[in-house]
Structure formats: structure tokens, C-alpha cells
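testing teh design pipeline on a random one, pls ignore if ur not involved
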């Protein structure tokens, strides 16, 4: 692996990690805000009850009655965070009752005393943070109009004083509504930006993973291609380096060399696809249904009995090249698995046509002797790969053990895959 690539990948990985951590930190901040705001409003409500109750009861209102009304008025502050359209009318009703009970006082700060203004403004601000601007303005306008009407009925002689008091309440409350709406909108925009940043970080991470996989594939090609080249050369020259070989042994080495060259060509073709250089790739036909016979013949040279059944006549007519390639790869992977995991078993390969589908069935019997699983036996990725290949053309694959302790792979592939499926 080049040293520059080794240093570059960790740096990009750290960048992705930093973005993810910042997203997590933002999430923690939002979680804290969701917990702090309700707690703060509850503490504010308790403080308002302690302050507003004696101020209301001092002139003419009995203490129990004042306490009950203030509980409703101040309790609407935390309630507005949950049920804003219910808390706002309750708070206004309690405020109007308090104004009616204190209408005979000589205070100039009537109908909206400072503590009433604070409580009602907090309620309207909470409502604005949980609803829309028109809803918040309706609650605000209702409070101003009803308090002005009550003032005109109960104290018509002090019109100027009450008008100023109502104007002060209206100005402060509408300003608080605007601030609450601005803060809420800012939080929404910030949350959306953080969400987009998190999605961008995830997409960058996926791109890095794809790039890393491509790099690993190229390195794997370099390693395996070197070994396959040595195998090919040694197999091709075996008959010349060892003249005492029998013709049968020499033919066996020739077949090994041919299979090695074929595997090397397939790996190079796959590497060209991973590199995105398909336009410059060598143009050669992909294997299809008619190549399965040759595949089985090559696999039979390993000493395993393999039978192959398929319809007679032009049974491959009307089958798309993508489906044909998928069927070939499924048979190739299924027979390879049987050769590795059930050496000595009998493998039956059956391909049939069912309506507009190609049905591939590969089954092997139980091996003649128990086979121990080695470290190189595989991890099941081949089975997953078969399922993914079938899914790309709109087909399906089922696999599992048979009743006689063997294994079976059953695939149903549409002869004409969905538009967009490619090899």
C-alpha cells in the first residue's frame, strides 16, 4: 500500500468522525434544551405563584380564592409548552377574573399589574414557541380586547390610565411573541442544518468506504494476480520441465493453466469495473446459459460427479443477457460451495423454464464422510452474493439443507429483467 494513501485515508476518516461527533454534540444540546426549558418554566410558575398570590390577596381578595386563581394563571406557563391552545384561554380567563376582583383598588397599575404582565407574557411566549404566528396573534389580540372591554365596564372613569396600562401590556407581550417566534425559527433552521450536515457526513463516510473497497480490490488483484500468473506459468511449462510426465498428467496441468488464465481475466475485468474504466475495458462476451455446460465439465475434472439437465431445443431463446449471466454465476457459486464443503458428493444441476422465468436448481447429496470446517471454508458471503445477484434482476434465491443432509440452492430469475438491470 502506498504511504501517501495510508496517510490520506486516516485523515479523511478523522474528518468524518469529527463531523459525526459534532452531530452527536448537537443532539445532546437539543436534548438538554428539551429538558431545561420545561424545568425553567416550572420554576418560573412556582415563583410567580409565590409573588402573585400575596399581591392579589392584599387588597380585597380572600387568600384561598386568590391562591386558587393564581395557580391556574401561573400554572398555564408550563402547560403552554404541552397544550398551548388550552393553556392560553385558561390563563386569560384567570387574569380577567383577577382584574375583576381587584377593580376597586386605587392602584394605577390596573388592569395589568407588573406580575400579571410577566405571567401573561410568559404564557403568550410559550404559546408562540409551540404554535404559528397567526395563532399567537389571535391569543394576544383576544387578551388585549377583553381586558380593554373589562376596563371600560368596571372603571370607565379612568380611561387614560387603563389605556396606558393595556398599551404597555400589549407592547411587551407582542415583543415577547416576536422574540419567541424568531428563536423558534432559528432553532428549526439550525436543526435542519445540523440534520443536513449529519446526512452529508454519512454520505461522505459511504463514499470513503466505497473508495476504500476499490483500493482493497486493486491491492487484492495485485496479490492474487501475481499468484495466478505463477500458477499459470508453472502449469503451462510443466510438460516441458518434466518430460517424464504422462500425457494425462500433462493434460491436467494444461487445464489448470487454462482455468488460471480464465480466473485472471475475470479478475481483471472486475477490476476495470471497480475502477470505472468500462469504456476502455476489453470487449469480450460475458458467460451465459450456454457456458454452463463448459463450467460443469471443468468442475467435473476435480473428481466429483455432476449431472446437468436443461430443456431441449432453443431453451435459451428470449433470455436476457443479464439473467443469463446471473444464472451462470449462481451455478458457478453453488457448485464451488458443494466442491468445498461437500467433497465427494453428487451434484445435480437442473435448469428449466417456467412461464417467463428461468429456474435454477443446484442440489448436492451428503458427503461420503464428515467434512471438518476449515479456516478457509468461507463465511457465507457467496450465498449472500447469489441472493444479491438475483435481486438485481428481480428474482429470488432460496437455499438450505435437504432431508438427506445435503444442500440445495433454488433460484427463480425473470427471463426479461426489469428495466435498469445491468451486468
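output:
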Amino acid at each position: 500500500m502506498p504511504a501517501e494513501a495510508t496517510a490520506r485515508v486516516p485523515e479523511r476518516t478523522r474528518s468524518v468522525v469529527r463531523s459525526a461527533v459534532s452531530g452527536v454534540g448537537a443532539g445532546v444540546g437539543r436534548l438538554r434544551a428539551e429538558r431545561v426549558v420545561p424545568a425553567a418554566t416550572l420554576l418560573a410558575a412556582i415563583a410567580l405563584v409565590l409573588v402573585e398570590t400575596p399581591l392579589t390577596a392584599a387588597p380585597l381578595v380572600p387568600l384561598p380564592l386568590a391562591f386558587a386563581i393564581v395557580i391556574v394563571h401561573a400554572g398555564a406557563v408550563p402547560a403552554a409548552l404541552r397544550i398551548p391552545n388550552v393553556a392560553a384561554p385558561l390563563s386569560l380567563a384567570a387574569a380577567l377574573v383577577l382584574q375583576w376582583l381587584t377593580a376597586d383598588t386605587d392602584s394605577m397599575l390596573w388592569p395589568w399589574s407588573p406580575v400579571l404582565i410577566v405571567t401573561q407574557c410568559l404564557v403568550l411566549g410559550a404559546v408562540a414557541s409551540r404554535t404559528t404566528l397567526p395563532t399567537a396573534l389571535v391569543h394576544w389580540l383576544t387578551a388585549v380586547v377583553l381586558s380593554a372591554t373589562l376596563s371600560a365596564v368596571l372603571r370607565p372613569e379612568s380611561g387614560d390610565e387603563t389605556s396606558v396600562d393595556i398599551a404597555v401590556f400589549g407592547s411587551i407581550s407582542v415583543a415577547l411573541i416576536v422574540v419567541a417566534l424568531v428563536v423558534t425559527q432559528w432553532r428549526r433552521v439550525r436543526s435542519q442544518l445540523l440534520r443536513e450536515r449529519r446526512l452529508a457526513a454519512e454520505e461522505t463516510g459511504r463514499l470513503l468506504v466505497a473508495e476504500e473497497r476499490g483500493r482493497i480490490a486493486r491491492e487484492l488483484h495485485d496479490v492474487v494476480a501475481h499468484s495466478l500468473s505463477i500458477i499459470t506459468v508453472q502449469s503451462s511449462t510443466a510438460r516441458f520441465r518434466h518430460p517424464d510426465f504422462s500425457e494425462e498428467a500433462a493434460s491436467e496441468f494444461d487445464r489448470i493453466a487454462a482455468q488460471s488464465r480464465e480466473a485472471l481475466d475475470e479478475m481483471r475485468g472486475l477490476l476495470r469495473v471497480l475502477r470505472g474504466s468500462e469504456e476502455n475495458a476489453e470487449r469480450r462476451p460475458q458467460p451465459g446459459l450456454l457456458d454452463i455446460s463448459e463450467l460443469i465439465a471443468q468442475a467435473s475434472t476435480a473428481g466429483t460427479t455432476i449431472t446437468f439437465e436443461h430443456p431441449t431445443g432453443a431453451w435459451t431463446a428470449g433470455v436476457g443477457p443479464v439473467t443469463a449471466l446471473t444464472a451462470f454465476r449462481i451455478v458457478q457459486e453453488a457448485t464451488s460451495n458443494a466442491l468445498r464443503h461437500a467433497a465427494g458428493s453428487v451434484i445435480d444441476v437442473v435448469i428449466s423454464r417456467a412461464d417467463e422465468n428461468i429456474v435454477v436448481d443446484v442440489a448436492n447429496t451428503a458427503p461420503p464422510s464428515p467434512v471438518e470446517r476449515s479456516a478457509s471454508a468461507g463465511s457465507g458471503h457467496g450465498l449472500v452474493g447469489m441472493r444479491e445477484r438475483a435481486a438485481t434482476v428481480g428474482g429470488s434465491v432460496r437455499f438450505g439443507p435437504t432431508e438427506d443432509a445435503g444442500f440445495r440452492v433454488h433460484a427463480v430469475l425473470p427471463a426479461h429483467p426489469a428495466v435498469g438491470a445491468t451486468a
